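Q: Could you fold this chain for me?
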Amino acid sequence: MAKLCCMSERYFMKFFKSVMGKTFIHYLNYVRLSEAEKLLLSSELTITEAALQSGFNDPSYFVLERQLTRYGIDNDMVRRFRTSRQMKNSP
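A: Sure. Below is the predicted structure, expressed as structure tokens.
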């Protein structure tokens, strides 16, 4: 995407976030989730088929993203949870 806009990847990411208020990856996942939801509601596709047709390469990642989005959990929260869990489990 950055190349299409004639920008470096780093600049594109910063610019996109400043304009849209969210990262490009977060926005892309939102668009993919919306498309998958439409497919699931309007067709007989399985979750795997809808995920793949919406641009997700891994159906399990689609399910995870869908759950995280539904409950308002972002990647930073997941990272903090994993870090705190690892710290509790280390000797």
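A (continued): The chain has a mean pLDDT of 80.
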